[in-house]
Task: structure prediction
Amino acid sequence: MNERIYLSPPHIGGKERDLILDALDSNWIAPLGPQVDLFEKEMSQYLGIGHGCALASGTAALHLSLVISGIKRNDIVLCPSLTFAASANSILYQNAIPVFIDVDIDTWTVDLNLLEKAIKKFSPRAFIAVDIYGQPSKYDAIIDLCEMNNVIVIEDAAESLGSKYKGIKCGAFGQMGVLSFNGNKIITTSGGGMLVSDDKKKIDKARFLSTQAREQSIHYEHKALGYNYRMSNILAALGRAQLEKIERRVKSRREIFIRYYDSLSDIDGIEFMRETEFGKSNRWLTTLTIDPSKIKASNVDIVEVLEKENIEARPVWKPMHLQKLYDSCEYISTNDDISKRLFETGICLPSGSSLSHGQQEKIIEIIISILNLKV
Ligand SMILES: *Cc1c(COP(=O)(O)O)cnc(C)c1O
Result:
C-alpha cells in the first residue's frame, strides 16, 4: 500500500525539536512558563492584536469567549450552520440556545440578509462568525449590524489563521477571536488554542478562568467557576516554532489550491470555493463542489475512490441543522438550503503544506479518471 496521504497533517521542522528540548532542559514543563508568555506575545504581534491567552484547545477558547461575554442559560447565540461542531457545542456548554443561519453561495460564510433576519427575530446576545476553510467572513457588515443591535461578535478563526479581511488578519474581528492549533490546522501544537482580544480585561479574565479561577491567597480560595484550560509550556514551545513559519505555510496551501484549480477548474460541473475581492484566504483546505446535473460521480464517490488509494479526502462539514444533536434548534435559511447543498456536493481535498507535487499530481489524476469514467 502506498503511504497514506492525509487531508491536513502536522508539518513539523527542526526548530520545533530544539524549542521543546529547551523547555524540557529548563524543567518548565507545565503549567505555564516562559514559552507560554512568549507564544502569546509573538502571536499577538503577528496578528496585530493587543493580547492573547494560550489554551488547551480552540474549543476551550470558544467556551471561555462565551463565559467572558456573560452568556448564560437560555440566552440565544447565533452561529452559521456550516461549521465544525465545536463552534456550536460551546453554546450548549453554557446552556444557551443556538440558532443556526445559512451561508451564501459566494463565500460559504454567513448570509448577511439571513443574519439580519435572525437578529430581528431572536434578539440574540451573541453571534459566532466562522471563517470557514480559511474564508474571512464579511466583517464590515457583520460588525455594523451586530453593534447596532447590541450583539456581541466572536470570531471563530480556528480555520483562518493567516487569512486577511481587507488587509487585517483574521482573529482580530469582533470582541474576541478564537484560534486553534489542533493537529489538522495550518499550524499545530498537537492540541491547543488561543483566545485573542484588544481588551486586556477580557484576556486577563481568560487567564484567571482557565487556571481554575483561583483567587490570590496562600490557600486555594474560589469565588468563581474555573476551568483547567491552560496550554502547557511544552506545547507553547512547539507553537512558537510553528508560528515562525506561518507565512510559508499559507503560501504552500495557496499554491496547492492553485495547482488543483489549474488542473480541474475547466471541467464543466466543478466549482471551487471562490476568493472574494475583500479577503485573502489561507486556503486551509481546498474545497470544491460537484454539480450532480453535470457530473455523474458524487462527492462521496470521489472520497471513496481516493480512500481505496489510501488518500484522505472528506465531504464538506455536515451542517449543524442536519445533526441529530441540534435537530430541535431553529435554522434560518431560504428554500435554497445552501449549507445542505454544500454538504451534499462539496469535497475537501488533501491540502497539507507538506503535500508533495508528486502526491498532488496523483490525486488529480485519480479525480480526472473518476470523472471520465462516470460522465
Ligand atoms: C478546529 C475547529 C474548532 C475547534 O478547535 P480545537 O482546537 O480542535 O478544539 C472550532 N471551530 C472550527 C471552525 C474548527 O475548525
Residues 16-243 form a domain with the Aspartate Aminotransferase; domain 2 fold (CATH 3.40.640.10). The radius of gyration is 21 Å.
